[in-house]
């Protein structure tokens, strides 16, 4: 491929990506309501993109559950319950558009069903490398001195490391869903300047149980961590 062809390809990819982001943002923010049909010629003019670029963007958003197509109806916004919130892009767009307290409550219910079980598995299956990752996250958390940016980063590292330490390939993948929401919630809490107890001790209790291969203790310690967080940051 020549340099000019590579440049054209890159430009097309850039236009395609920007179109996906623009449409997704409008859908998640409610600019286009559920069931609304998109007028493609108007969108092409408004976004200044070709029919090919717009068509490819629609394909991407269709696979993610945001859009649907019908021969007679055209391209339309699908109901919210059909949006694939487990898709990392959809989740990112959702968080960027703004979420309500009930969204965080739903994710907490998800976390309560996954993270204690993952911690129990970690206690049974953890490797030396897993413990090293958990200890590194704890050390980072202890050294934050209540710096909100460092604290959010350390908390994300801890929960990622714990899910991976389960050595269950599906639990390990759940950090892609849990951690972005956790980071968003932590940022909101810290930005509100609410009083809270430094989280190092409650996280360290989970790691200690995992280190001691205490399966039941790890499960309960993680459950207490989640419940304590919910009590402090409703």
TrEMBL record:
All residue ranges annotated as the HTH gntR-type domain in the record: 13-80
SMART domains named among the record's database cross-references: FCD (SM00895), HTH_GNTR (SM00345)
Pfam family, one: GntR
Superkingdom in the source lineage: Bacteria
PROSITE patterns attached to this UniProt entry: HTH_GNTR
InterPro entries in alphabetical order: GntR_C, TF_FadR/GntR_C, Tscrpt_reg_HTH_GntR, WH-like_DNA-bd_sf, WH_DNA-bd_sf
Key words of the record: DNA-binding, Transcription, Transcription regulation
UniProt cross-references to PANTHER family, sorted A to Z: GNTR FAMILY REGULATORY PROTEIN (PTHR43537:SF44), TRANSCRIPTIONAL REGULATOR, GNTR FAMILY (PTHR43537)
Protein name per the record: FCD domain-containing protein
Source organism (scientific name): Streptomyces sirii
């Amino acid at each position: 491929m020549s340099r000019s062809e590579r440049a054209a390809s890159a430009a097309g990819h850039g236009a395609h990506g920007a179109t996906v982001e623009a449409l997704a943002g409008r859908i998640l923010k409610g600019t286009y309501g559920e069931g609304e049909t998109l007028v493609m010629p108007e969108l092409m003019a408004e976004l200044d993109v070709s029919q090919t670029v717009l068509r490819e963007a629609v394909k991407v958003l269709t696979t993610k559950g945001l859009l649907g197509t019908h021969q007679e109806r055209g391209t339309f916004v699908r109901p919210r319950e059909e949006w694939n919130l487990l898709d990392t892009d959809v989740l990112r767009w959702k968080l960027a558009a703004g979420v309500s307290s009930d969204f965080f409550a739903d994710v907490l219910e998800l976390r309560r069903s996954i993270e204690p079980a993952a911690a129990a598995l970690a206690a049974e299956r953890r490797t030396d490398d897993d413990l090293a990752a958990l200890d590194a996250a704890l050390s980072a958390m202890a050294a934050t001195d209540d710096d909100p940016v460092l604290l959010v980063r350390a908390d994300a590292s801890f929960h990622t490391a714990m899910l991976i330490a389960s050595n269950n390939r599906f639990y390990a993948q759940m950090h892609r869903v849990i951690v972005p929401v956790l980071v968003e919630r932590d940022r909101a809490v810290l930005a509100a300047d609410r009083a809270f107890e430094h989280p190092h001790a409650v996280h360290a209790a989970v790691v200690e149980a995992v280190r001691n291969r205490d399966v039941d203790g790890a499960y309960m310690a993680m459950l207490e961590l989640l419940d304590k967080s919910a009590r402090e940051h409703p």
